Amino acid sequence: MPDPRVRPLGPPTDVPVYNCRVYVAPRNEAGVIVARAANLAEVAGLGESEREALQQIVALFKVKLAAFREAKQEIPWIDPVPPPEPGESERWIAVHL
């Protein structure tokens, strides 16, 4: 007898997924954490926690990518990606539109 908690998957859908490379700076003097997308210009976030800063990054990254796709414009990726600044940590976030 099949497990009632398991549901079959539907047909695959075409959902674009992009890698957002993020550099996260240590907490500054004001207690704020700043994060910035390393591979797309003008995408940054800040917050009282890293999670909050990354949530802002993801939201802005989605908005920018959706606008480029809707306008049928090429996405202006930063390539090559510059290295992180001293003290910054690197994160990778898979972003689904």
What's the short story on this structure?
With 97 residues, the chain is of the alpha+beta class. It contains one helix and four strands, in the order βββαβ.
Along the chain, the helix and strand elements come as EEEHE
| 3D shape | extended
Largest sheet, order of strands side by side? 3-2-1-4
Report the helical percentage: 10-25%
Q: Calculate the terminal CA-CA distance, rounded to whole Å.
A: 37 Å
Compute the number of helices.
1
Strand residues, percent: 25-35%
Mean pLDDT across every amino acid position: 93
Question: If you compute it from the alpha carbons, what radius of gyration comes out, rounded to the nearest whole angstrom?
Answer: 17 Å
Task: Report the biggest beta sheet as strand number plus sense, adding barrel if it closes.
Answer: 4 strands, antiparallel
Query: Low-confidence stretches at least 5 residues in length (pLDDT < 50)?
Result: none
- Total beta strand runs: 4
Secondary-structure content class = alpha+beta
Features:
1 helix; extended; alpha+beta; 97 residues; 22% helix; 26% strand
How is the secondary structure organized here?
Elements: E1 17-24, E2 33-37, E3 44-47, H1 50-70, E4 89-96
Antiparallel strand pairs: 1-2, 1-4, 2-3
Describe the fold and architecture.
- By secondary structure, this protein is of the alpha+beta class.
- The chain has 1 helix and 4 strands; from the N terminus they run E-E-E-H-E.
- A hairpin with a 6-residue loop joins strand 2 and strand 3.
- The protein is extended, with a radius of gyration of 17 Å.
- The chain starts with 16 loop residues before the first strand and ends with a strand.
